[in-house]
Amino acid sequence: MKILLFQAIISISLFFGIWGLLTNVNWISIFQMERIQENTEEKPGELYWKLFNEYEGVIKNIEVLAPLDSILSKIYTSNNIDRTQIKVHIIESDEISTKNQNPGISEKDAMENRELN
Amino acid sequence: MISTGKFAYEPKDDEAEKASNSYVMSLAALTAGLPLPIINLIATFFFFIANRKGTYFVRWHCTQALLSQFSLLFINSFGFWWTTAILFDSEPITNRYFSYLITAFIFNLAEFITTIYTAVHTRKGIHVSWWFYGRLTDLLCHPKTEIPKKLF
User: Fold this and answer.
1) Domain annotation covers residue B1
2) Could you tell me which chain A residue has the CA closest to the CA of B140?
3) pTM for the full model?
4) Tell me: the pLDDT tens digits for A16-61?
5) Of B97, B59, B12, B100, nearest to A17 (Cα)?
C-alpha cells in the first residue's frame, strides 16, 4: 500500500512537474499567437469597413473633416494618444444617439426640445 | 514504467487473446477515426463488463486497462473544458494552456505506446504490469474476485 501511494505521488508530481516546466516556455511567441489574433481581428474590421463603404454614405467633405480633425488633434494631445494608430471615418446616418438629461420626460420630447432650442 | 514477469499461472491461448483485446479496446478511438479519448474509456469499460466473470488473467488485464483509461479521463476532460472555455467564454489563451495541452499529449502518447506494447506481449501470454496501475490492479483484482451483480 505504501509503495502504491508512493507511486501515485510520483506519477502526479511528474505530471505537474512537466506542466510547470513547460509553462516557462513562451508558447505564445513560438506559435505566433499574437500575430494570428491581430490578423483575425483585422479581417472582420476590414469586412465591416467594406460594407460601410458600399452601403453607407462616407463623408469626405473637407468642410466637415477639417474642424473634426482639429477637435480630435486636441483630444489626442491631451490624452497622449498616438494618432497614427487611429483612423476616423465619418458616415452619414439617420440614427441619432441622444442622452436624456431630464429623466422626467421621454426621449422623444427631449429630442424635440433640443431641436427647438 | 512497465515490468514483465510471470503471472500466478500460465494463461491459455484464448485467455491471452482476450486479455490482449482489452488493451486493443483502448485504441478504439483510433479505429473510429476520432480524436476522442472518451471513446477509448467507454470501449474499455464495456469490454471489462463483458469479461468480469472471466479468468483471473483476463480480469486482471481488463482492470489494468480500465484503470489507466480513468486517469487519462481526468487529464483529457480538464483540457477539453479549458478549450471550451477559451472558445466560448472568452478565456484568454496563455502559456499555461499550451503547456497543459502538450503535457496531456505526452501522457496520452506514453499511454498509447505502452498499450500497444502490452497488447502485443499479453497476446503471447506474457504478463505485463504497469507502474502504479499494476499494483492498483493487484489490490482490486484477486484470483477469486468477481464483480457483484448488484453494481451493474
Assistant:
1) no
2) A1
3) 0.65
4) 999 999 998 888 887 776 667 677 777 777 777 777 777 667 777 8
5) B100
The question of ipTM being above 0.85 is answered as: no
Cell numbers given for B146: 468477481
Q: Annotate B90-125 with b (16+ C-beta within 10 A) or e (fewer).
A: eeebebebbbbbbbbeebbeebbebbeebbebbbeb
Any idea which residue has 499555461 for its cell? B96
Query: Which residues of chain A make contact with B95, given a CB cutoff of 8 A?
Result: 23, 25-28
With contacts defined as CB-CB under 8 Å, which chain A residues touch B139? 1, 4
pLDDT of residue B110 exceeding 50: yes
**Across A46-60, B8-22, B116-130, least confident range:** A46-60
Check A23 against B131: CB less than 8 A apart.
Answer: no
> Each residue of B65-90: pLDDT tens digit?
999 888 888 898 899 889 999 888 88
Measured in angstroms, the CA of B135 and the nearest CA of chain A are apart by 6
B20 lies in some domain: yes
Rounded CA-CA distance B57/B8 in Å is 8
> From chain A, which residues contact B within 8 Å (Cβ)?
1, 3-4, 7-8, 10-11, 15, 18-19, 21-23, 25-28, 31, 33
**Contact yes or no for B99 and A23 at CB 8 A:** yes
In chain A, residues with a C-beta closer than 8 Å to the C-beta of B130 are: none
Task: Please give the tally of structural domains in chain B.
Answer: 1
